[in-house]
Amino acid sequence: MHSRREFLQAGAVAMVGVELAGAGRAMAFGRAQTGGQPEPRLAAVKALVFDTFGTVVDWRTSVAREVEGLAKHKGLTVDGAKFADAWRAQYEPNMNRVRSGELPWTKLDRLHRMALDTILPEFNFTGLSEAETDTLNRAWHRLAPWPDAVSGLTRLKKKFTIAPLSNGNLSLITDMAKHSGLPWDCILGAELVRHYKPDREVYQSAADFLDLKLGEVMMVAAHLGDLRAAKAVGLHTAFVTRPLEYGPNGKPDRKADSSIDVTAKDFNDLAGQLGV
Question: Taking the model in full, what pTM does it have?
Fold first, then answer.
């Protein structure tokens, strides 16, 4: 027969075993809920910075809606989606004029207005007052977020500092955040360093302004060119696919390359992969 001491010891061991098993189940449940812990090489990441147009917000649908609404008010018929595409098509060429020195530093609102003045007559979108044209130009301040954006960002904010790192000027990105409820911790971007992405100064500034090392910052974008440039500077990278950015017949980036550390289908998927 066992002594009383042996009986108590056996009972204690059994209780510890039950507690450990329960803790193991709880830990497994936690991993299932959060998507697990991030890879060790990403454990140093403290801040996520985001491309905005196309990655966080659906610029094409938003701009098309405003164009068609104003056109209808003026008694005109304008294809809003084609107008939005034509407007966006001047985005890179106009920024290149700044990068090359052809133009002095010019914030994006002004570049958007230059493009708008060019394409309005091309679409026979005439008869707008100055106030109406200015309001239309500020459609970029009122872009709607992708369905997962606010919930995903709110989740990521629990663990990381989150900020836009956009070519949009500060007033534009601030207005967009207010309009769409984007829960940024702060606003970063091109205007602060008077360089447009993919100039390295923009990516470097994210670490500098947040007092972090480059390897403690992750760039999140739907565009591989943006992520390759960030990677070259030393940031970690997360590729979030946005298959409808350019509409149902568009050709967005869909497949990651060697510059990408994490690939996610949306911001909530990204949060799960990063252990939030």
Answer: 0.85
